[in-house]
Structure formats: C-alpha cells, structure tokens
C-alpha cells in the first residue's frame, strides 16, 4: 500500500470566483437574457450577466462601429500593399477616402464613450 501524500492547498488565482449571487428571473426574462447573451457573442449566459453587471459590454452600436473600423482597417491595409506594389499616385485618392471613413468611425466611438461617461456621472 502506498501511504497517502500530504494534501497541498492550491493557490487561488487572482480572479478566482468564490462568491455566489442568487438571482431569480421569470421564464420570459431568462429567455431574453439567453438571447441577449447569444447575440452579444457569449457562450454562457452567466458570463454575459457578469460582464453586463460590471459594465464590460459594448452596445450593439459600438460592436457595429468596431466591426466597421476593422473592415476599414483591412481595406487600408490592402490599399497600402497595392501602393507599395503599384505606386502611391494611383491610390492616393482612395487611401484618403478610407482615412476619412476611419476618422468618422473613431469619432463615433468617442461620442459613444462620452455619452456613457456622462450617464454614469
């Protein structure tokens, strides 16, 4: 027989979740939360609720704007590659158009953040 080894206590991770909150939802509310979690891209409703309660979520508008920024950034990257291969003169106008669109999108995000900050105050 093997003697039992002394048990070692595991160190808790800094973000270890040891607190439990119990909240009741109606069937309709639960269904709505599940839909919101899914539409926000969360696999878990509890993760969605945790992030929402700690104000870590983007609104759908923010998500759309961020998606738009990513697409515009990708377009700009493609134009930059073409500019290196074909010369900047032909692409200059298109590059400036994409930069203008990026600027507008960034300003939209800034205004959204300002509204959130003002509503929290």
Question: What is the element layout, followed by pairings?
Answer:
Blueprint: H1 27-39, H2 45-53, H3 60-86, H4 88-120
Helix pairs in contact: 1-2, 3-4
What this model shows, in words?
By secondary structure, this protein is mainly α. Helices cover 68% and strands 0% of the residues. It is built from four helices and no strands. The radius of gyration is 24 Å and the shape is elongated. The N and C termini lie far apart (66 Å).
Please name the defining characteristics of this protein.
about 120 residues; mainly alpha; 4 helices; about 0% strand; elongated; disordered C terminus
Give a short overview.
By secondary structure, this protein is mostly helical. The chain is 68% helix and 0% strand. Helix 1 packs across helix 2 (45-53).
How are helices and strands ordered from N to C?
Answer: HHHH
Residues in β-strands, percent: under 5%
Rg, Å, rounded: 24 Å
Sheet having the most strands: none
What is the number of E strands? 0
Alpha-beta classification:
mainly alpha
DSSP helical segment count: 4
Poorly predicted tracts of residues? 113-121
Whole-number mean pLDDT? 76
């Amino acid at each position: 027989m093997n003697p039992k080894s002394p048990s070692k206590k595991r160190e808790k991770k800094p973000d270890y979740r040891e607190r439990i909150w119990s909240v009741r939802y109606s069937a309709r509310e639960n269904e709505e939360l599940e839909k919101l979690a899914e539409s926000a891209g969360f696999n878990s409703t509890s993760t969605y609720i945790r992030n929402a309660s700690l104000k870590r979520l983007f609104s759908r508008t923010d998500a759309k704007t961020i998606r738009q920024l990513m697409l515009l950034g990708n377009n700009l990257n493609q134009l930059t590659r073409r500019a290196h291969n074909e010369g900047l003169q032909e692409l200059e106008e298109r590059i400036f158009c994409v930069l203008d669109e990026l600027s507008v999108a960034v300003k939209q995000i800034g205004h959204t953040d300002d509204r959130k900050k003002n509503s929290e105050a």
